[in-house]
Amino acid sequence: MKIRLKLLAIIVPVILLGGIAVSMAAGVWSTTTDKQPATYTSGEFAGEYNPADIRGSYTFEDISSLFGIKLGVLYEAFGIPEGTSGMKTKDLEGMYGDTIEIGNESVQVFVALYKNLPMVLDDTLLPQTAADVLLRDNKDLTDEQKAYIAEHTAKETAQESAPSASEPSASPSPTGSPLKDGTNEEALVNGSTTFQQLLDAGISKEDIELIIGSPLPPTNQTVKDYCNAQGLSFSQIKDQLNALAE
Amino acid sequence: MDLREKKKSKVRLVVQIFFFALIGLIAINKTASEAGAGIPFVSDASLHALCPFGGVVTLYNLSTLGVFIQKIHMSSVLLMGIIFGMAVLFGPVFCGWVCPLGSLQEWTGKIGRKIFKKRYNRFVPKKLDRVLRFARFGVLGWVVFVTAVSGTLLFANADPYYALYNFWTTEAALPSIIILVATVAGSLFIERPWCKYACPYGALLGVFNKFRIFKIKRNANTCISCGRFTANCPMNIDVAHKGTVGDLQCISCMECTSEKSCPVEGTVGLQTRGYAHNPFKKEEKEGSI
How far apart are the first and last CA of chain B? Predict the structure, then answer.
């Protein structure tokens, strides 16, 4: 059997594009991560999505549909103009600038408090607007949660804290809110950091094992995936690792 | 059909331009989408998601941890499977017909060919060339190893293909841009230098040349040994002295076939069956490597 040049010119695009089309039709073609957070594995909320696994690539529309929170509420909480679409939670960092740390973790905490879902609360900041929405919409907040909100609210709005070309660092510190530190350095550990990257950054195997409380897992695994699989608090592990790296 | 008419066939060029433009459009749309100005009905997938080599390097993670490497998705694994399937049939047709980086090198090479004429693609001494051609297997091994250990796409920082479609973004690392510029500049002297000496994916696909179903075969009985197909082979394969081209470097571009270079009808083609040897016709050397 012989294949002519012109026939091959048809076969190649047909197989390639046809293969993609068939994959799409079969529902297996995916060019993005499945936006399905991990679920609680035990307890009262077993089977429900865990807000601690919300990732920076999730859009507010994703979170709205996954956790059943109205998009308008999310926008109001984080000072996002109505009519915005496709904004990712990690985009909050650019929106609020470097002076206050509002980002994906703020969304995780907001969702957990708004929906009364269990989550280890650490030093994550919430914008004042998010605190107002929580106190207004969730009457079931415990005193402990209300105290957390009061202590972890950044008073600045996105407009006040956004980086300005003329005054890049003139913004005052948020009042009544413990910032993690006063620097603008990017933290070593985030949701996509692997154990190999920790080793490359100079953190010893022993230190990592001490923090995670078990032998070093495969180095190609992300710290976040490991924590989710082991039921550990990623936020706490991350903070300890970041503290080591400083 | 006479020889002059045969040589005008531009079907491969059309396919190359189509894929070059398609992937370029998707890459531009990705940037536009992030700025809120995406083009309707055009995919805004990331280049990583459309990279079949990403499917190869994520296999270790997928088998050991059950997850993809960051930025790699199911699409990469599916593309890898489709391209492997095509390679089983026709060899590395992805390299010769689809890969935009290969096409860019080839088009740049046409300028080099005009400048250097017959000296073009003959600058590297044969002995050195033979050794350098194994370098891409070293690159393949290194990329697979560091990706497996780190769980991250470290190769993207040095990948000229990624730089080609991301040089306008902050995602393209400086080393990848430097390698891209060096590759394009090198194409003025050597045809497809990245493919020949460094491409890890080409190295992997080249292995399929050993057992592909449709192979480039030469009929020694009708061959007049003019050497045109050897001269036209972008990968410098000595087609004139082979019955079957099983060279690891063949990219199935069909430039050596009777439809493109060979002046004798039906002498070199892509087919399953070979030709019976004519014992009365004297050959300098024949065989496959």
Answer: 32
Q: For residue A22, what is the nearest residue in chain B, using CA coordinates?
A: B78
Domain segments of chain B: what residues? 3-208, 214-289
Within a 10 A sphere around the Cβ of A194, how many other Cβ atoms? 24
The rounded mean pLDDT for chain A is 80
Determine the residue of chain B that is closest to A29 in CA distance.
B75
CB contact under 8 A, A2 and B269: yes
* A18, closest residue in chain B (CA to CA): B82
B57 phi and psi angles, rounded to 5 deg: -75, -15
- Side-chain half-sphere CA neighbours of B207 within 13 A: 9
Confidence of residue B288 (pLDDT cuts 50, 70, 90): very low
B62, B149, B205: best mutation site toward chain A, by most A Cβ within 10 Å?
A: B149
Distance separating alpha carbons of residues A213 and A232, to the nearest angstrom: 10
Q: Provide ipTM, 2 decimals.
A: 0.87
Contact assessment for residue A7 and residue B47, using Cβ atoms and an 8 Å cutoff: no
- For A2, phi then psi, to 5°, come to -120, 140
B105-117 residue pLDDT tens: 999 999 999 999 8
Helix (H, G, I), strand (E, B) or coil at B38: coil
Q: Which residues of B touch A205 (CB under 8 A)?
A: none
Among B29, B75, B86, pick the best mutation site for testing chain A contact (most A Cβ within 10 A).
Answer: B75
Amino acid, single-letter form, for residue A73: V
Nearest to A3 among B97, B271, B273 (CB): B271
* Whole-prediction pTM: 0.69
Instruction: Report the distance separating Cα A183 and Cα A32, nearest Å.
Output: 33
> Does the distance separating the beta carbons of A16 and B83 come in below 8 Å?
yes
Written in H, E and C, the secondary structure of A129-157 is HHHHHHHHHCCCCCHHHHHHHHHCEECCC
- The 10s digit of each residue's pLDDT in B54-97 is 888 888 888 877 777 777 888 999 999 999 999 999 999 999 99
